[in-house]
Amino acid sequence: MFYQLLKYVLLGPLLRLMFRPRVEGLEHVPEEGAAIVAGNHLSFADHFLMPAILRRRITFLAKAEYFTGPGLRGRLTAAFFRSAGQIPVDRSGREAGQAAIREGLGVLGKGELLGIYPEGTRSHDGRLYKGKVGVAAMALKAGVPVIPCAMIGTFEAQPPGQKFPSPRRIRIRFGEPLDFSRHAGLADEKAVLRAVTDEIMTAVLALSGQEYVDRYAAEVKAEEDQRRKESRRAGVRRGN
């Protein structure tokens, strides 16, 4: 009930007014039945823009930190995310990937749409990064199609560090469903999972037109953060 209220009354109209989304390929999203929508991830606003324009409800796997904030504000934030169709996933530890897959399969098992960002985190520089294989595992285990999706313009509307998005026209592009039934029964084969994931990311890349980086976003961001820290320490030493 609250999901519909957010979509049609509270949040959806505001998002449409702010971003005036131009949507392409919406006919590729099935009107019924389980499917995965796999897209790039450029902004915090992505979580809400796609549900606002889709005819069907879509459930996203979201990082657990959104649900564990302290105090009243934390509880309200968690309630909002759950009401908006987000499922918390702990991304730390060895079991994190398997937990996400279990949650995703639960959604697909109910015949619903599942939204996934295969990069695993928001792009910190607007480029498209290597996808993690969880999306392939879910697609093969559930036997469902994957619809590639590209958000275009949301990075410029709300780049990292900007608390609130700026009004800007954005585009959302959906590609033709990808059928991986030829790999049925091979969900435990690492080479197959990698090949399927790369095929999905290639389709997203064709829709988004981003520069592609064949590395995981989290690794690159961690390296850049480390270099900045070292540069600041070096500057402090020179200042002394």
From TrEMBL:
<feature type="compositionally biased region" description="Basic residues">
    <location>
        <begin position="229"/>
        <end position="240"/>
    </location>
</feature>
<feature type="region of interest" description="Disordered">
    <location>
        <begin position="220"/>
        <end position="240"/>
    </location>
</feature>
<protein>
    <submittedName>
        <fullName>1-acyl-sn-glycerol-3-phosphate acyltransferase</fullName>
    </submittedName>
</protein>
<dbReference type="GO" id="GO:0016746">
    <property type="term" value="F:acyltransferase activity"/>
</dbReference>
<keyword id="KW-0808">Transferase</keyword>
<dbReference type="InterPro" id="IPR002123">
    <property type="entry name" value="Plipid/glycerol_acylTrfase"/>
</dbReference>
<feature type="domain" description="Phospholipid/glycerol acyltransferase">
    <location>
        <begin position="35"/>
        <end position="154"/>
    </location>
</feature>
<dbReference type="Pfam" id="PF01553">
    <property type="entry name" value="Acyltransferase"/>
</dbReference>
<keyword id="KW-0012">Acyltransferase</keyword>
